[in-house]
Amino acid sequence: MGAQVSAQVERRKSISTEKKSLVDLKQTVGSDFPGCDYRPSDRKNWMSGLNPDNIRINQIVWPGTHDSATNKIGIPLVTRPFAQCQSLSIYDQLKTGARVLDIRVQEDRRICHGILLSYSVDVVINDVKRFLEETSSEIIILEIRTEFGHDDPPDFDKYLEDQLGEYLIHHDDQVFNRTISELLPKRVICVWKPRKTPQPKAGGPLWGPGHLKDNWIDTDLPSTKFESNIKHLGEQQPVANRKHFYRVENTVTPQADNPVLCVKPVTDRIHPYARMFIAQCFARGVADRLQIFSSDFIDEDFVDACVALTKARVEGKA
């Protein structure tokens, strides 16, 4: 018992030290980066506002959401706080400015996060289509994967093609060098990541797992995650040279050996430092690698930071 108490004391000290490390870094270096003062007047149509004729796909800093469809996961006030990573619906996330969705499914096409369940994936698809019908030039990256420990939903690739066919941007390495206008009216890059069934074929309507990569680490230590994100980002090629998307997640994850197991208070340890992360990308010479930047509980300021850097890139300022 004494050893367990001692271990918990050390864990709490580590968390406190790492939280202070980010606070001190922000006070020392700030959060400014090229174009950071820009705020889109219409987040629902922010790509349209930057002129789709001028924005190449590989210039976009894509604001994304982590575990996107968890706003109604589990039982309210009972299990939900342990798995909920977003409070907004998929439609409201898109309206706020998110353009990358991270969707986890199980065998029956229901959304899940570990053992906890939510609504059918049909809710996600309907929200996506509603948003696309209300906008004209917004491109979405829709990543759908089978959750760890589950089997793939039967014929799920056919389901996605049937539901999104008119919007799907077929896999093509040249997509990265094209402007938004050159891809329209197609609007969705759908990355399907099955666990056991065959992966999408090159050139088809769905993109395979190798076209959206990341280096996720399982930690609740905010400075550890922040520095890991910088390190792994620096190992990537610049966006201009890549033929896949690379994601950085401004999140940390509750750990079973820590008494704080709810997602919100844990991820809040790193959530306020998204702008500082972008600033540090410039300071450390890796800003040309940043592409997809995702968050738990996405908010307008997070979106604004990604849009501001996108605008600066399009204008040749970053």
Automatic annotation (TrEMBL):
<dbReference type="Pfam" id="PF00388">
    <property type="entry name" value="PI-PLC-X"/>
</dbReference>
<dbReference type="InterPro" id="IPR017946">
    <property type="entry name" value="PLC-like_Pdiesterase_TIM-brl"/>
</dbReference>
<dbReference type="InterPro" id="IPR051057">
    <property type="entry name" value="PI-PLC_domain"/>
</dbReference>
<protein>
    <recommendedName>
        <fullName>Phosphatidylinositol-specific phospholipase C X domain-containing protein</fullName>
    </recommendedName>
</protein>
<dbReference type="GO" id="GO:0008081">
    <property type="term" value="F:phosphoric diester hydrolase activity"/>
</dbReference>
<dbReference type="InterPro" id="IPR000909">
    <property type="entry name" value="PLipase_C_PInositol-sp_X_dom"/>
</dbReference>
<feature type="domain" description="Phosphatidylinositol-specific phospholipase C X">
    <location>
        <begin position="51"/>
        <end position="192"/>
    </location>
</feature>
<dbReference type="GO" id="GO:0006629">
    <property type="term" value="P:lipid metabolic process"/>
</dbReference>
